[in-house]
Amino acid sequence: MPHDYFNQELPLEAKRSFIFLSLLLALLFNLLPLQGIMLLLRPDFVAITLLYWSIHYPQRIGMSLAFIAGLAMDVSNSSMLGQHALAYCVITFFGMILHRRLRLFNSFQQAPQIFWILLITQFAIFLTGLLGGSYFPTWYYFFPSVTGALLWPVISFLLGIPQKPKSDPNEL
Amino acid sequence: METVPQFFRAGPSPQVRLFFFALLSILLMVMDARFSSFSGMRQTVGMILYPLQRLAYIPATLFDQAEELINDFHLTKEIANLRQQYFLNQQKLFRLQILEEENAQLRKLLGAAQQAEIKAIMAEILYVPRDPFNRKVTLNKGSSSEIKAGQVVVDDQGVIGQITQVHPFLSEVTLITDKGHSVPVQVARNGLRSIISGAGKNNELELRYLSVNADIEKDDLLVTSGIGGLYPPGLPVARVENIEHDPSRDFAVIICTPIAGVNRNRQVLILSLSTPIPEHPEEAPPEEGPKHTTQQGRRNRAP
What we know:
Number of domains of chain B: 2
Largest interface: A-B, 52 and 58 residues
Low-confidence stretches of chain A: none
Number of strands of chain B: 12
Helix content of chain B: 25-40%
Largest sheet of chain B: 6 strands, antiparallel, barrel
Number of strands of chain A: 0
Strand content of chain B: 15-25%
Strand order of the largest sheet of chain B: 1-2-5-4-3-12
Helix content of chain A: 55-70%
Oligomer: heterodimer
Mean pLDDT of chain B: 78
CATH class of the largest domain in chain B: Mainly Beta
Largest sheet of chain A: none
Shape of chain A: globular
Number of helices of chain A: 7
Strand content of chain A: under 5%
Number of helices of chain B: 4
Distance between the termini of chain B: 61 Å
Order of helices and strands of chain A: HHHHHHH
Radius of gyration of chain B: 24 Å
Order of helices and strands of chain B: HHHEEEEEEEEEEEEH
Low-confidence stretches of chain B: 289-303
Radius of gyration of chain A: 17 Å
């Protein structure tokens, strides 16, 4: 049985401006003033976007971009400077080293694996917060990883649209 | 075929990069947490992010406006209600004015200091941190509206928190439920003074250092005592929820719930004492504890 990897079409190269734009949008989503249960469930859009780019275009995205996005997150989140930066670097790292393996699967099959990566990232934030003092979340702190993994197919579909190879009717 | 050959990829390996950036961020964290040396950088990044934050706030504003539009249908009833309320309050206000004058007179007679006047600035909660366990919120007024670090934030029912970081157009409030945040309070019933601290949990505060036999009961109201000069006296802070007398410990475990809607409201008031508090008399012991430090207090105040 041929793996459905062979049916995947070859995507175009991603535009750098689009990568930046998507990160800005993700930051915007992260900044939405939500309350209560929505706040608990809100996935870390920046982390997911970074993960997407580092899986699909590891050459296009550097860890420095993740670091800067993390700093922006830290300032707006009024957490320790470097806390999210470290977490986002970890997520880019995982994206970079696992990208060949992850790209074998379609985005639905990727989702459970994405969950573990997001969980590790959250754990990094949790650990640094714990070491920084006065910070002890309850177990539902890890909800955003679940919602993030559930949203993964949608987000990776949306981010993949501009890279779809255009079929040219006059090609032949 | 489908994989890019290794030698096409330039730059150091992911491991090396991660190592470098992890070191950098750990350095940043240590510098920030221990020496809080990046407030300038924080402000700059905050300024850059400000338009984005405003943009993110637009849906909430739209939602509010829609809600207002719907509420317009109930306006006549509400106006009648408010009018009634106004008349009732007006009477109280007259009495308050008389009492204030009388109080001033009496204070003059006694030679006591005048009570500090309080100025209030209205602000809105712009942003709640993504991480719901971070007990901080961002308000839409900053140093351009003469907000200073250390000012007290209240809602219509009681104390919410204190301004800890000021940007040009934004300010950060540490909520009273933050673990490193303390408020000098007294029991409204008998004037017993203590310091209340956040428990780091949602809707929970604790009175940490009251002895087992202290005169405190369930449902006691705790108000600010005004000691320390940061909080104006008499603002409601919390209500005692549960008391645990464990004779094997020195202190009773007293859990309280905040009265103000610490994570409910959108509109808040920022209070500032416009008349300075008089100097401490000479014999007063050195001040400890009650004030929340104006910087990032949560890190350097381990109990």
